[in-house]
Design goal:
Order of helices and strands: HHH
Shape: flat
Strand content: under 5%
Number of strands: 0
Number of helices: 3
Largest sheet: none
Radius of gyration: 18 Å
Structural class: mainly alpha
Distance between the termini: 54 Å
Helix content: over 70%
């Protein structure tokens, strides 16, 4: 039996799917922990939580950016410029959210 070789498009789709999956799992866990501990009046913060939030933000960004870029490119220069502005704002806010 021969193995079929993956195309570049399939590899890109798999990468997007795993980024979306990681973002979903981390978002769910972080929201649950934050809400549960807030409910019992415990403040959770620290480097570990901050790193998890950053990983979630980066995974979410990677999961969204490829589809949004192809959409923007298909709709012209203005949409592409708006895409790059939004991407820059997202990256800056994710990084500054750590401090």
């Amino acid at each position: 039996m021969t193995r079929r070789q993956r195309t570049e498009g399939q590899a890109k789709a798999d990468f997007i799917r795993i980024c979306c999956y990681v973002a979903l799992i981390l978002a769910a866990v972080l929201i649950f922990i934050n809400n549960f501990l807030t409910l019992i009046e415990i403040n959770v913060s620290g480097t570990f939580i901050d790193i998890l939030v950053l990983i979630k933000e980066v995974a979410l960004l990677l999961g969204i950016v490829f589809g949004a870029y192809s959409f923007a490119r298909a709709h012209g220069k203005v949409w592409t410029i708006l895409f790059w502005i939004a991407l820059a704002l997202y990256i800056v806010s994710a990084i500054l959210g750590l401090f």
